[in-house]
Design brief:
The chain is an alpha+beta fold. 46% of the residues lie in helices and 17% in strands. The strands form 3 sheets. It has a 5-stranded antiparallel β-sheet. A 3-stranded antiparallel β-sheet has the order 6-8-9, covered by helices on one side.
Length: 272
Amino acid sequence: MRVKRLEHFMGEGWQLRPAGGATGEAYVAEQGEQKIFIKRNSSPFLAVLSAEGIVPKLLWTKRLENGDVITAQRWVDGRELKSYEMHDNRVAALLSKIHQSKDLLDMFKRMGNRPLTPEAIRLNIIKKTEHLHIQDPYVNEALTWLSNHTPYYSEDNYVVCHADVNHNNWIHNDINNLFLIDWDGAQVADPALDLAPLLYEYIPRDDWSSWLQTYGVSMDANLMKRMQWYMVAQCVENILWYWQRHEYHDITKWSDLLSEILHEAGHHKKDK
C-alpha cells in the first residue's frame, strides 16, 4: 500500500520497488531510462551531505500532506565495499572529511541534538541489559570496566559521526567515486565512535598507524583508550542485539572480541 501511495505521488509511469535497508523506507523509482533513489523521512541534513559529495547527489525534496518528507537522489550504479577494501586510503580520507565538516556539525547542532557522551552510551546499555534480564559474566565484566574507564575527550572537539561505518554502507560507483550512505543514526560524538569499529573490524593492527595518518591523526595512548572504550561498548550492544534474536554464533564472535579488548586494555592501566 505504501509503495502504491508513493507511485501515485510520483506520477504516471513511475514504478517503485523496495531498496532494502533496516527502515524499509527506501525505494528505487524507475520510469523508462530514468532511475532514482527515493526515501521517506531521510536524514534532515541530506542536502549538506550531498553538497559535500559524501552521499549521491540530492535531486529534490518534497513534503507530503501528512508531514512526511520525500527525498530523491541520483541513482548510483555501484556496489558496496568488501570488507578487505576498507583499507583503501579513500575510506580514511572520506571519514576525515566528514569528521572535519563544520557545515555538518553546525546543522546538526541547530537541530537541537544533544551530544552522545560515553555516560549516555553506558546508561543506555545498562537499561537494555536490565530490560532483557541478562546475567552474563562477559556483559557484567564489560559494564564494570566501562564504568571504571570512562575516557575523557572534550565535547568541544566532538564531530558528526556516522555511527554505523559497516562496509555495507560504503558505496563505490563505476567512475571511482566513494560515498557513505544511511545517515539515519548519525550522532555528534567523539570521532573514536566511528574510528573504533572501523579499525577493530577491518584494519590489521600493524596498519592502524598508517591508516590513521591518512585520516589525519597520530596514534597515542589517549586515542587508544577511547577506541577501546567505544569498542567494548559496541561489543556489548551487539551481544545484546543477537541475544534478543537467539543468534548465539554471533554472540560468541562478539564475546571473543570483547575478551580480547579487555585483556589488551589491562596492559594500559598505567596510562591515565
